[in-house]
Design a protein that fits this description.
499 residues, alpha/beta, UDP-N-acetylmuramoyl-L-alanine:D-glutamate ligase, Protein-Tyrosine Phosphatase, Chain A, 6-stranded mixed sheet, 18 helices, ligase, peptidoglycan synthesis, magnesium, cell shape
């Protein structure tokens, strides 16, 4: 990667280059973290939420980098520092977009050599991306997955740290997928990633919109800004891409305003390019009609009907020559993503673990379970709310959970750096004094789960919501091992074998 190539790739944001006349240079490393710079490499100064990248410039220069990319105009002192150490400085109008462009150049644009599909929305991203990954793998394609729970290259599992990785990690991951022979990659696209320009230089073959409800307002501030972030992804799609939209979501039409991609819709409730109909459902699965073709799914509930429908639709768009019978058979073999309506059975009751951590997701899960209860059975819900996140949704979640449950236990989720008692108190604000008296409280999530299991009677269903696939609980900045599924199995086992 030469300086000439770099300047060309940065033209949309290029302001200046100092010195203007420099010998041709080649670079073999890019970093945006000052701790990861190497001699002869490139450093891109990014303004972070907690850290200002430019504040480490002296340290980076002393570390031996040859090229720095950033937004500030150099002071005389900085100009002298750069000249003394033979550092080239490229000033740009947007360092996050410049970083994404440099990473794409460095890895020779791997996203253009595969079929990259982005999935965005408040709920359903993980399930949709995971089901597509599993389906295409089942059909014999080397497939990649980038998401909240894990990243996968074929069968190789790579731990995930963010829903959408940072540009440098993302570029390396896509390159590895390409050289490993992946032809399809399914990627969760978070609103944070759009706003922070992490995906700006990727080429998407398609974009999928699942739904949009309240979440991440601690970051975006307002629902309008949250909607704009999601819409930004569809605005970026090219004329060669498709946009597959949930027509039943009120924000679906907004997503495709001014969208250049070919638009397709899917729906349970209205005319659409791809139609979904629920024929029958129970706790073992759902009978569906997809474009009037019957298929049995192991996934439960209307929200999973949407997930199956969009997977069906995306596959029809990506593999138009695939025989429909082969597609329906493959769909019927799919299992739910980890921690998404994951059922834990016992001899007397049924427990369900779900990642529902927003009011809308919680409502959908509870409304899915309610009609499946046997006569006289109760729905017992264990739920908390995350610390250092949108506080406004806490009372709403408690209110919706109380209304749709026969018994509610409020507990901790990931308190992070907040006091668990305060988070629970915030949730209680959504309940009347009488409702508060009827609600059980235990900040110890393990004990709350065990209490729910002890109170459950034959036929009851326990929902443990909020953490889903997570195998940790973050308390005071420290992650401790914790898995809702493990805790449920242990608690139910103790009840069945009290010795």
């Amino acid at each position: 990667m030469t300086l000439k190539e770099i300047i060309k790739s940065l033209q949309p944001w290029f302001v200046s280059c100092k010195p203007q006349e420099v010998p041709e240079l080649a670079f073999s490393n890019i970093a945006s973290d000052s701790r990861k710079v190497v001699a002869g490499g490139i450093f891109v100064a990014i303004s972070g939420v907690a850290v200002e990248g430019w504040s480490f410039i002296s340290q980076v220069v002393e570390g031996g980098v040859r090229l720095i990319v950033g937004e500030p105009t150099l002071t005389q002192e900085e100009q002298t520092l750069f000249t003394t150490h033979d550092v080239v400085y490229i000033q740009v109008s947007s360092s996050p977009e410049a970083l994404a462009a440099l990473v794409a150049l460095y890895w020779d644009y791997p996203s253009e050599k595969m079929q990259l599909i982005g999935v965005t929305g408040t709920n359903g991203k993980t399930t949709t991306a995971t089901l597509l990954y599993r389906l295409f793998s089942q059909l014999g394609y080397q497939t990649g997955l980038i998401g909240t729970v894990e990243n996968r290259i074929g069968k190789e599992v790579i731990p995930a740290t963010h829903t959408t990785p940072d540009p440098i990690s993302l570029g390396a991951l896509l390159h590895q997928m390409y050289i490993s022979g992946c032809s399809y990659v399914f990627m969760e696209v978070s609103s944070h990633a759009v706003v922070q320009r992490r995906i700006g230089s990727l080429f998407f073959r398609g974009g999928i919109f699942t739904n949009l409800t309240r979440d991440h307002l601690d970051y975006h501030g307002t629902m309008l800004e949250y909607i704009r972030a999601k819409k930004g992804f569809f605005d970026s799609l090219s004329t060669e891409a498709f946009a597959l939209i949930n027509a039943d979501d009120k924000n679906g039409a907004t997503m495709i305003q001014n969208c250049r991609a070919q638009v397709y819709t899917y729906s349970l409730n209205r005319a659409a390019d791809f139609s979904i109909k629920v024929v029958e459902r129970d706790l073992n699965g759902t009978a569906l009609l997809l474009d009037n073709k019957e298929v049995w799914s192991r996934l439960v509930g209307n929200f999973n009907a949407y997930n199956m429908g969009v997977v069906y639709a995306a596959t029809r768009l990506l593999l138009p020559n695939l025989p429909i019978e082969e597609l329906l058979t493959a769909l019927s073999n799919l299992q739910a993503a980890e921690g998404r309506f994951e059922v834990v059975y016992s001899g007397t009751c049924t427990a369900i673990v779900d990642y529902a951590h927003t009011p809308d997701a919680l409502i959908k899960v509870l409304e899915t379970i309610r009609p499946l209860l046997s006569e006289g059975a109760r729905l017992i819900t264990v739920v908390g709310a995350g610390g250092n996140r949108d506080k406004g949704k806490r009372p709403i979640m408690a209110q919706e959970a109380f209304r749709r449950s026969d018994l509610l236990l409020l507990t901790s989720d990931n308190p992070r750096n907040e006091e668990p008692e305060q988070i629970i108190q915030d949730m209680l604000e959504g309940l009347t004094p009488q409702e508060q008296l009827q609600t059980l409280i235990n900040k110890d999530r393990k004990e709350a789960i065990r209490t729910a299991c002890r109170l459950a009677q034959k036929g009851d269903v326990i929902l443990v919501a909020g953490k889903g696939h997570e195998t940790y609980q973050e308390i005071a900045g420290v992650r401790h091992h914790f898995d809702d599924r493990e805790e449920l199995r242990t608690a139910l086992s103790l009840l069945n074998n009290p010795s």
